[in-house]
Design goal:
single chain, about 270 residues, mainly alpha, MetI-like fold, about 70% helix
Amino acid sequence: MKKYVKPSLYLILIIYAAFTLFPFLWAVSGAFKSYKEITSGSMSIIPNDPTFNAFIKLFQMDDLFLRWVFNSFWLCTLGTIINVLLNSMAGYSLARLRFKGSQAVFYMILATIMVPGQVLLIPNYLIVKNLGLINSFGAILFPSAVNATYIFMMRQFFINFPKELEEAAAIDGLSRIGTFFRIAMPLAKVSISTQAVFIFLGFWNNFLQPKLYLQDPAKYTLTVGIQSMMSRYSGITQWDEVLAASVISLVPILIIYIVLNKYFMQSVRMDGEK
């Protein structure tokens, strides 16, 4: 009986993977189909007559699509850099600095993880509006400048960081700030790369905040831009263009994952060993 358990589990996983991957593969193939073929109801993954017309129309339509791609990439890059820096500094401070109320600060940061983001939408909007940041990228960057989850992750990393290295750096004359930037940060590249991947993906896929704060179409991110395309032509959704835009939106995510994959996998292995 036991010899059938493993093959059965593999069969279940293969079927589940097929159901999971099929919509994604169909969406990718749909970017190379004509509008008529997409709306015909055919579920074939392989296009009958492959075409790049949807991609050509995207770039020839106007300059807004390229502008949306640039906006998303710039916003994600800047947001990731700010998050990685502030999260790492906060995590290092909570792990190494001892001051009155440090534990209370740590528990308050942890408590924010339990607050659903939807609860903060109205308070954040009112704060952003009073600061005069509506219709600016600052409205997206400032509320998302830090992340409690990654502060906790970096704190746990620096708690296990060898103190001997910091003591040796102090003997050599490095200040606390110098030790952080020249010793701790370079040796934390695995944890930093891991959080960078997820933070970049979070900014790239973010729809609600750009939709709420950005009013000028020229400042739209790619997610909001794709949504605006869905009713551009008298309420008729041009599915070939929407699917092509979605495929293009996947490219930066794949590049980031390929570049930082080795650090991400190393982090997984380290967590497993611990």
